[in-house]
Amino acid sequence: MREVVVAANWKMHTTPADAGELARTIASRTRESGVTRVICPPYVCLAAVGAALADDDPDVAVGAQNVHHELAGAYTGEISAPMLAGLATWVIVGHSERRRDAGETDEQIGRKLERAMDADLRPILCVGEQLEERERGEASEVVDRQLRGAMAGHDPARTTGHGLVIAYEPVWAIGTGRNATGTDAAAMADAIRASLGGLGWADRADDVPVLYGGSVTSGNIGAFLGEPSIDGALVGGASLKPDEMAGIVARAGITARARGLAG
Ligand code: PGA
To answer: How many Cβ atoms from other residues are within 10 Å of residue 25's Cβ?
Structure first.
């Protein structure tokens, strides 16, 4: 049975002064057996969040929101995978806001994936189509291209061994309050696993957790987690709100119990 994951992407919110307290509050309100919880604060808050959770709830993992594709060098303002040692155990790669704002390419995202795994970070690889692409009926083609660009050459055994998670995040649903339907998200999760099959992952594609992301709230999470192909959520805006996170993780707990994952 695939793992159930709820990952919080805090984006460019919180400071080292307040992030620890928010993490502690969210952790205490989301204790749900069988659900893997991850909080991804800004780089400068990783230490504060890690310290707050280590005292309180070491079951909540800490993740970075990005990592550079080189190990070291003249890259002003960037952070490499080895620098995250002791600060994070997960990392988001290929988020659409980085593709858009930093011009990240699939090839670079593939290298980030490699660096993350070399540094023993669990990657959450984000893929998803633009609105016009969905309207043209090209959503699964776009995601297939993104996966091919980022994953070609990655050894399936090594990558699943490092606990790869894929987040399907339609760009038009991120931060817009307009979420995909559960049925559409599930069809895309199936398309993602079919793409992995096409990349030579036939016997491993079913093991990869696929999350949905894009305007997830406690009110709509049930539509996604009611779909057997969907294994959790990558939550942006709502992840800064303890009440929302409590509702989202409580719903994830129902799925975890139904899958026999809860202890
Ligand atoms: P959102 O962001 O929940 O605010 O739409 C999701 C994401 O960007 O991961």
So the answer is: 15
- The structure's pTM equals 0.97
Is residue 95 flagged as an active site residue? yes
pLDDT tier at 28, thresholds 50, 70, 90:
very high
Quote the CA–CA distance of 74 and 208 in Å, as a whole number: 35
Q: Which residue out of 40, 65, 66, 216 has the highest number of ligand 1 atoms within 8 Å of its CB and is therefore the one to mutate? A: 216
Residue tagged active-site, from 95, 104, 133, 244:
95
Cβ < 6 A, ligand 1 pocket: 9, 169, 174-175, 213-216, 234-238
Tokens of 43: 């780089």
Of all protein residues, whose CA lies closest to atom 2 belonging to ligand 1?
236
Contact (CB, 8 A) for 52 and 23: yes
pLDDT digits (tens, 9 = 90+) for 230-249: 999 999 999 999 999 999 99
| Nearest alpha carbon to residue 231 among 255, 249, 203, 261 | 255
- Out of 32, 104, 133, 169, the active site residue is 169
Cα 48 to averaged position of ligand 1 atoms, centre (Å): 22
Cα 257 to ligand 1 centre (Å) = 26
Give the pairing type, strands 90-93 and 122-127.
parallel
Task: Give the HSE-up count for residue 17: Cα atoms under 13 Å, Cβ half-sphere.
Answer: 0
Tell me the CA–centroid distance for residue 200 and ligand 1, in Å: 30
State pLDDT tens for residues 73-112.
999 999 999 999 999 999 999 999 999 999 999 999 999 9
- Cα–Cα distance, 229 to 90 (Å, whole number): 22
